[in-house]
């Protein structure tokens, strides 16, 4: 049983507004993803590649532009604009299906990651973590500590009064002079995750946030940032899958209503161009 053609037209023309709203929401989520990726791109367990971010930028931008095209096409009764609007909708549906599959596959892969196996060898991030632990409060870098009782026994070069001394690895002159760009980028990664997740260490537990602030009173039970980083990556990929699944359902309904309008019995004598452009007989 077909809906009246006037009802289908009303539904399909409302799609443009929904596409524009969805595109703006997707654009905001893409900004969030970009920020997360910039923070965690040094994580060698990161499954979220730049291709996923680029895909979201493309799809969210296309949704916004397509929503505008649909609104203008509806107001101006432009067959060309409406035809383009509907064809892009089909492309967006396929794009969201791909992102949904990608998000859930990556989330499943991250969930199955064996942390013990990953940490069984000295990873690049753990090497940088070790360098930082060995540098701060050593002969190469005096540190300022408010509570010496928190320091590991090997940390002997410290002051409890001179606040100008280092409170994180990046304050050390040795860091500025001798660490390469990759190590400095990894230090920036550690700074962000220590601050964001209130954690310390990487594969191995550690009692100080050496890249953020050794005087910061963080949650001592969260002494391996690897677990926090892994959980965040899993949650992000799961959200990508969930949002894409929702958008797939929405876009799927829109495409179905569009084809219902195109294939309506009153339009059987029109060609495909006229049908997709809601051309009136």
TrEMBL record:
Keywords: Membrane, Transmembrane, Transmembrane helix. The chain crosses the membrane at residues 12-33, 53-74, 81-106. Its main location: membrane. Pfam families: Tetraspanin. It is a multi-pass membrane protein. It is found in: Membrane. It comes from the Eukaryota. GO terms for cellular component: membrane. This is Tetraspanin family protein. It comes from Paramecium primaurelia.
């Amino acid at each position: 049983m077909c809906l009246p053609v006037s009802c289908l037209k009303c539904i399909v023309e409302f799609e443009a507004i929904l596409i524009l709203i969805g595109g703006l929401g997707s654009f905001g989520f893409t900004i969030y993803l970009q920020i997360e990726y910039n923070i965690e791109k040094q994580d060698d367990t990161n499954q979220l590649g730049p291709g996923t971010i680029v895909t979201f930028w493309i799809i969210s931008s296309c949704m916004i532009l397509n929503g505008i095209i649909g609104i203008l096409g509806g107001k101006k009764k432009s067959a060309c604009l409406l035809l383009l609007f509907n064809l892009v909708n089909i492309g967006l549906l396929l794009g969201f299906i791909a992102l949904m599959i990608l998000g859930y596959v990556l989330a499943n892969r991250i969930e199955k990651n064996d942390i013990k196996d990953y940490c069984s060898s000295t990873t690049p991030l753990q090497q940088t973590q070790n360098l930082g632990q060995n540098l701060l409060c050593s002969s190469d870098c005096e540190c300022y500590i408010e509570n010496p009782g928190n320091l590991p026994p090997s940390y002997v070069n410290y002051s409890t009064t001179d606040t100008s001394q280092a409170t994180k690895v990046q304050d050390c002159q040795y860091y500025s002079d001798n660490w390469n760009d990759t190590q400095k980028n990894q230090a920036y990664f550690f700074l962000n995750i220590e601050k964001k997740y209130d954690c310390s260490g990487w594969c191995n537990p550690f009692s100080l946030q050496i890249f953020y602030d050794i005087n910061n009173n963080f949650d001592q039970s969260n002494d391996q940032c690897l677990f926090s980083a892994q959980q965040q990556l899993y949650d992000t990929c799961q959200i990508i899958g969930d949002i894409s699944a929702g958008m797939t359902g929405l876009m799927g309904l829109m495409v179905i209503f569009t084809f219902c309008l195109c294939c309506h019995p009153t339009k059987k004598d029109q060609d495909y161009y006229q049908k997709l452009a809601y051309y009136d007989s």
